[in-house]
Automatic annotation (TrEMBL):
Residues 1-23 form the signal peptide. One of its GO terms (biological process) is lipid catabolic process. The keyword Signal applies. It comes from Gordonia amarae NBRC 15530. InterPro entries: AB_hydrolase_fold, Lipase_secreted. Pfam families: LIP. Transmembrane segments: none annotated. This is Putative lipase. SUPFAM superfamilies: alpha/beta-Hydrolases. Keywords: Signal. One of its GO terms (molecular function) is triacylglycerol lipase activity. It comes from the Bacteria.
Amino acid sequence: MTGRRVAAVVLAGAMATTVTAVAAPEASAADFYTPPATITGKPGTILKSQSIPLVLQIPGVKNQWPGTAKKVMYASRDVNGKPVGVTGTVIEPTAPWTGKGSRPTVVVGSGTIGQGDQCAPSKMMSFPMSVDITKPTIGVNYTAPEMYIFLLNGVRVFVTDYIGMGTPGIHTYVNRTETGHAMLDGARAAINASGGSKDSPVGFVGYSQGGGAAASAAELAQTYAPDLKVKATYAGAPPADLRKVLAAVDGTTISGVIGYAINGMNARYPAMREVLDKEANATGKAKLKQLSTECIGDTVLSTGFQTTNGWTKSGKRLSEIVSEYPEALKVLEENRIGQLKPNAPVYLQGGLHDDVIPYGQVKDLYKNWKAQGADVTFHTDPTPAILTKVIVNHVVPMLATLLPGTNFVLDHLRK
């Protein structure tokens, strides 16, 4: 490991924890998140942009470390092919690119950050937290480590808010197609917004929800975005098979994310909505509505360790009910990652004792991709079981794999 990469991690950690001041986003900023009445242009087209300072930067001063940031809205497509406006942040680094060719772009997909509009990462680039005591809600942007590692190495970074996060409509959490589109069109948008070379190298990075988004982008790239010169992907602990993930996460500190997933599916799949309308009780329906406006910190406090059998008329958990309906299983299968071949090398990670993202379904993703001839490096994190159901075994592997995963992408971008 080079000294520069060590410095990147140290500085990223420092930047993620240094600023403790908090503020709710300005009300006037909400207008930025309203898409045009008609969205035209190809996916990745910039619909609007706005310069913003990063943490500790002085507004209006040019060429500050670690780079110049813009909040952008860009065109993408939902699962039905409908044009949608998605927001995100592009950062042009101060550091020079020392590898071959033109400056590359890495798209970072955040891990589970919530479903409420206030949780959008682009709203927390100037301050790493957002607190609204009137709601109340607490949002935390924890994309800093990956972001600063790449910026210090002269790589352009784009952090997507995903579809429906900040913008109108529900955030379609763990929707394979829509998270993949948000990442791929985010790469196009970053290049367009910065005036970068159209054939510059591209990489995708993410862990947990972000790992699923990165993995989705990797396998959708050759069909949805063949124009992108994808060089590598790091996908950590991706929720590749939602049927298995829904069962595993139930009853953990983050059991409320099941509500995020169900809300997103209800918005896109009438069959899933019909099942939930029939099976969810009044408590469950109220809980789903509540979760749709929360950030992950709120959800841990409101729903931690709950099991979803309290949300249903039958007393069965949602994962059991979904398994009884072929139309619901079809939706989950449509969202299973591993059905297409990534067109560039992937570094895939799974925690042997991960208590929310089952190791077996990550290993199955590896097998499915390898069977199609994909170039996949699979890393098993051996962290022993520690306080299961409190996501320690999900968080520790994230920290342990940060450098190997980002270094894998950096090495391929330099080739």
